[in-house]
Prior knowledge:
The protein has five helices and no strands. It has 120 residues and is an all-alpha fold.
Amino acid sequence: MFDWNNFLSFAKIAKPDHPECFHRTAISRAYYAAFHNALDFLISRGQSLPTDATCHKVVPDSLKALATTDRNSNYFSAGDNLKRLRVKRRIADYESAPNVKFNDVQLAIRLAEQISIDCR
């Protein structure tokens, strides 16, 4: 089974002097590490999730719903952070402006790490 944290490890090799294309790729990889960790967590809890693109909306919403049923605010935070990280990933993957900077990469990594911690 593939370890999605390898994507996060890739993101962490980004440096301030790397070209913007590297920063954009690092943000994308951080998102997918967090997304798949959250997805695997929900599946391990018996949740049935879509296998199409709608999954990117359903996963954070499912985490937030789980926060209510399990009374665990970490799941709510994970859902919110995954939504925030998805916005960063969409900018990095689809928008030519604004420029993506190294501090955007650092934020993406922090969010991905926190999501992975919250989804345990």
